[in-house]
User: Which sequence fits this backbone?
């Protein structure tokens, strides 16, 4: 065996155990979830194979379709708003020279804070008078108080605001990194040619930010599809309420598994969520890259 071949053999010898360990902890639970989705299991008795019964039950369940609509509401509304807000803030923050580091850290702090703590703070903001800060401000402006989390119509947008605010700092930092990676020579050449700031933004900045935008679009979409902490902590008296108006798929899975102990049915819900996440991520990657 040549010296190069021995090096490759030694490299694979050292890598074999980590690769096996990674595959075991990464793929074994996934395959187990797929298997459990075809069984009836309540943790106390052995799993009983029932075929597609869990999936038939799932697609006939009105609660599932309600949570399905809620989950996609978080995605379709929350993801574009968060991306646009984070880009606008990053674009102007990148032009600030005095106190730039302080402002950047200020925006990033919410992302470092635990989701449970953020949710409880925002829950306090939404409380009625005299506790709630937002209703206190509305009262000072002589505007009617709002029910927020106690209203089926307002609860989901209220939680969405919290989720957008919590993830804004990370997206801003990534957009700033993308903006600073663009060579300044492009901007100098464009200004020499007489292009306006709007034309520079449209023809140079946005096209060169495409890889960053793709990453944040997929990352943000997965985050909104998997939203759980804000919903569970902000509606802790009635998780997913009122009247199921804020319940996402992840919360439905949690309640099915750990409240009803219907593990087979919960696994079927998990598989459906996995397929949704995979399909949306691949579709976004295909559409954004093809353009």
Assistant:
């Amino acid at each position: 065996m040549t010296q190069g071949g021995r090096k490759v053999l030694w490299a694979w010898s050292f890598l074999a155990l980590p690769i096996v360990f990674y595959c075991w902890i990464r793929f074994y639970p996934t395959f187990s979830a797929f298997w459990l989705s075809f069984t009836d299991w309540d943790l106390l008795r052995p799993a009983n194979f029932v075929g597609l019964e869990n999936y038939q039950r799932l697609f006939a369940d009105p609660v599932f379709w309600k949570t399905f609509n809620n989950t996609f509401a978080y995605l379709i509304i929350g993801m574009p708003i968060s991306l646009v807000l984070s880009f606008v803030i990053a674009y102007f923050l990148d032009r600030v020279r005095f106190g730039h580091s302080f402002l950047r850290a200020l925006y990033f702090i919410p992302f470092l804070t635990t989701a449970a703590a953020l949710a409880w703070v925002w829950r306090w903001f939404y409380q009625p008078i005299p506790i709630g800060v937002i209703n206190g401000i509305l009262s000072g402006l002589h505007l009617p108080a709002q029910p927020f989390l106690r209203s089926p119509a307002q609860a989901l947008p209220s939680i969405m605001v919290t989720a957008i605010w919590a993830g804004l700092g990370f997206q801003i930092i990534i957009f700033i990194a993308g903006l600073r990676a663009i060579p300044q020579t492009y901007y100098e050449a464009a200004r020499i040619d007489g292009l306006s700031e709007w034309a520079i933004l449209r023809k140079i900045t946005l096209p060169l930010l495409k890889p960053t935008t793709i990453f944040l679009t997929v990352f943000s979409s997965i985050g909104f599809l998997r939203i759980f902490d804000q919903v569970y902590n902000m509606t802790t008296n009635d998780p997913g309420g009122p009247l199921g108006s804020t319940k996402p798929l992840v919360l439905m899975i949690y309640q099915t598994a750990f409240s009803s102990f219907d593990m087979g049915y919960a696994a079927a819900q998990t598989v459906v969520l996995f397929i949704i996440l995979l399909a949306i991520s691949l579709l976004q990657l295909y559409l954004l890259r093809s353009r």
In short: The first helix runs from residue 3 to 36. The first strand starts at residue 39 and ends at 40.
